[in-house]
Amino acid sequence: MQFLYLIRPTRTDMLRTGLTEAESAAMSAHFAYLQSAQAEGRLILAGRTLEADERGFGIAIYNAADAIEAADFARHDPAVAAGVVQAEVYPYRVALISAENVEAGA
């Protein structure tokens, strides 16, 4: 099954004013966590909006056996565990995807 988790910063001005040292460490660990999931074949895609205000959010679309495993994946994200971001998990189904259409370096 596929799932999407949406993350939003818990400190709403984080993207506008910059990350604290603790937030930066948590977000670095978050990125490494997603890279590991990608290497394992669990992560389909991840990214964030470029909004630097309260509208900003990130998503990850990933494979999990069921809703419990999907929630655990989000809960164990280091940025979620540190309270830097909050996550919402949704069942999801990728209908169309084309890796060739993703801009390099975007």
TrEMBL record:
Query: Which SUPFAM superfamilies does the entry link to?
Result: Dimeric alpha+beta barrel
Do you know which InterPro entries this protein is assigned to? Answer: Dimeric_a/b-barrel, YCII
Where does the YCII-related domain start and stop, copy by copy? Answer: 1-87
Q: Which family, according to UniProt? A: Belongs to the YciI family.
- Return the protein name: YCII-related domain-containing protein
Tell me which species this is from: Chitinimonas prasina
